[in-house]
Amino acid sequence: MTPQTVISDCGDAAVVVRALHADAADRWRMVHVLADLVEQADLDGLYGVVPTYDSLLVEFDADRADHETVRRVLDQALRGIRPGESLLARPRLFVVPVVYGGEYGPDLDLVASQLGITARQVIELHTAAPLTVRCLGAPVGAPMMDGPAFPAPVPRLPSPRVSVPPGSVAVAGRQAVICPMRSPGGWPLLGRTPLRVLDPASDPLTPYRPGDRLRFVPIEPQQWDEHDGALLAATDG
Amino acid sequence: MAETLTVHRSGHATVQDLGRPGRARTGLPANGALDEYSARMANVLCGNADSAPLVEITMLDFACEPSADLLVAVTGAPADVTVDGVPHPQWEPLVVRAGQVLAVTGIRQGARAYLAAYGAFDADFLLGSCAPDTILGFGRTVRAGEHLALGGHWPSLVHPVFRHPFFRLRPPRPRFGSPWTIDVTDGPDLAEFGESHAVLFAAEYVVTPRSNHVGLRLRGEVPRRAVRGEVLSRGVPIGAIEVPAGDELLVLHRGRGVTAGYPVLAVVTSASLSSLGQARPGDTVRFRRRTVADAVAAYRGGRAAVREVRRRVRTAFDALDIPSPSCCQRRQP
Q1: ipTM value of the model?
Q2: Residue in A8, A10, A12 to test binding to B, most B beta-carbons within 10 Å
């Protein structure tokens, strides 16, 4: 069976594929497997692929590749995808200590009131289960995860912050993220981790990959210095 | 010992190249010269690879002095290019003798000029590119007093031909100056705007001071999305015109984060991205709707022009016995 997708032009140098499967995990798996296949297709002029939750952006040099060729590669790759194909043979677990609320998470109370629950309940839900990294995204190398099991989506801030400190732990919509570097941001901030999640001197820049899981653990502000500046590392090798 | 370019005056200049576009999957923005066409052409006029490191001079005056005779080219927005006070044309190669002062001043009708040098500049590289990444804290502003190392070696280029005005390669120059006409193709979320999408092509937009290499914020009448509902973060191309809920359009440029959650109404064409990279705060922008086929043809036309100038440069260099510059050195920080 051909996977259910829609392919559209996205400017003169990109094509976007959207997955329409009923199941969110299937959509996610499909766009990432498809991204691998496109990278392996040896397409002249390919810049790169950006698979996210349910969408795949394929960027290319419009001087060397064209939309028809890219669509042909995508069609062929789609035929090779088997349903239920797994993404990572061995997903890893990362434990992320977080100081919640106060100056560390200035929007914790706002999010609690928007969701109609207490700040403590927000923290409980945010730390209840590991969250799966779905893709790496903005501003740079950020682990974009499924949001916690909140009762409703979380609205973005009406006015984005000019500068969000590195390690900030944020949520928006049905998504969760850690902000790796200081950057502007419009997502409500629940807390902040003292760990570094990105190392500009390493390649790859981040220790986690799509499919890995991050588990948030609340710590007290006094415990900040125990972790400060350490690089996030998997707990299960 | 490596020859250098001593910087005498610099307001806001950086060492740039064409960025790192192949790393979006790891969440890394492309970055690189905002006026890609001018940057390519500056390098090609010096015999360099299109993507060789060069200096991007933004708005403020720049002056420098090479320690050895040096072939350079200045492209980009109109500016006054002088060597020891004597005016020289932009968009043509010229020789600066050791100890002479090359100045690029009065940048106008655009924001950026590009200075390339034969053999390119020796730069620090991160993940395959010397382009600054402000989020990662990589790359730096070129400051007065600094010595930019020139990559590789070159023979003496003192040749009478370079001092005479008949040495002309005549690369096609883009049109500079406000109002900017920026070509776009339909975005993947155009249908969500219903009839309101037409506003984009009727209105005029003003570039606000909160614009930079990440994106331009444009003030003007904003099309309204007809449907509501959350948008999951997804990959967005350079040039995406996003429509947040507020009263500004956001046009993503080369420093853009690779994912975003706003609907994409239109996408600036690859050719027009170079023009948009020249727009200054206060400038007016008008959008023109184009087909993807037209946009591709326009971009290929620009790249063909770069190849044609490369051919003419090679012919001229061969005639003058100038070898191709040795490849620029690459160094990881």
Answers
A1: 0.94
A2: A12
- From the list B320, B253, B261, B217, the residue with the least C-alpha distance to B33 is B253
Nearest residue to A220 (alpha-carbon basis) of A96, A99, A97:
A99
pLDDT digit string (tens) for A24-58? 999 999 999 999 999 999 999 999 999 999 999 99
Contacts of A174 in chain B (CB under 8 A): 230, 232
pLDDT tens column, B263-315:
899 999 999 999 999 999 999 999 999 999 999 999 999 999 999 999 999 99
pTM value? 0.94
Task: Of B29, B57, B232, give the one whose Cα is nearest residue B136.
Answer: B29
| d(C-alpha B99, C-alpha B207), whole Å | 40
Tokens of A100: 């919640």
Tokens 């996030």 sit on residue? A232
- How, if at all, do strands A213-218 and A93-100 pair? parallel
Longest Cα separation, chain A:
58
Tell me which chain B residues have a C-beta less than 8 angstroms from the C-beta of A87. Answer: none
User: For residue A236, how many other CB atoms are within 10 A of its CB?
Assistant: 10
How far does A55 lie from chain B, in Å, by closest CA?
6
